[in-house]
Each structure stands twice: as C-alpha cells, then as structure tokens.
Amino acid sequence: MLMPHPATLRKLVGEYEALVAHQAETGAVKADQRAQDLAYTLCVSTGTRDVNLALKKARSHLAAAQGPVAPTPLRPTGPGAAETRGAGEAHGAGEAVT
User: Fold this and answer.
1) What does the pLDDT look like over 27-75, one tens digit per residue?
2) Which of 4, 7, 10, 50 has the fewest C-beta atoms under 10 angstroms from its C-beta?
3) For the range 33-38, what are the long-range contacts, defined as Cβ-Cβ under 8 Å and sequence gap of 24 or more?
C-alpha cells in the first residue's frame, strides 16, 4: 500500500489532533467540516475506515520513518586539524584557494 510522505502525514495528524483538542475545549458536540475532511484524508492515506485506527497506523508509520538517529561524526580540532579536512572545509565555502 502506498503511504504519504512522513511530513504530509505528520501535518495531517497534527492538524486533526489540534482541531479535535480545540473542539473538546470549546465543548463542540459535532465535528465541523474540516475535522471530517481531515478524518477522511487520514483514513484514505492509511487504508482504513476508522479515524482512530488511521491515527494509530499513522503514528506507527511516522515512528518507523524516523528510524535510528545516526551519530554525528566528530570533526578534528586543534593544531593540524586543517590538514585532516578536505580543502573546501579548511577554507570557507566559496573562498578561492590560492
């Protein structure tokens, strides 16, 4: 099954949850059209027919999309560090090496 890009899915989930939270704060009894549209889009995006299941699948997909975070490699510093870097790194970006 095709899944939307994680950024798109994250935006849908965030907007839906914010709207539902706002409706709960204001005591809205009936979901407005935007909430219904977001729920529908989430269901279509996740291949489900229930918004709660759609949210669960979306969160699972987003968690899997993040994956493990690779550590940032350490850069040498101190005397002699310029020799261990590439020429473009030793001199600022866009500067000519003379």
Assistant:
1) 887 778 999 999 999 999 999 999 999 999 999 999 988 865 555 555 5
2) 7
3) 38/12
Q: Which of 35, 33, 54, 53 has its CA nearest to residue 44?
A: 54
Q: Say if CB 13 and CB 55 are below 8 A apart.
A: yes
Q: How many CB atoms lie within 10 A of CB 26?
A: 7
As a whole number of angstroms, the distance between CA 55 and CA 48 comes to: 10
For 16-32, the pLDDT digits (tens) are 999 999 988 888 877 78
Contacts (Cβ under 8 Å, ≥6 apart) of 87: 97
Distance CA 55, CA 46 (A): 8
Sequence-ordered strand ranges (E) for the chain: none
Length of the chain: 98
Query: What CA–CA distance (Å, rounded) separates 60 from 62?
Result: 5
Pair 24, 57: CB distance under 8 Å:
no
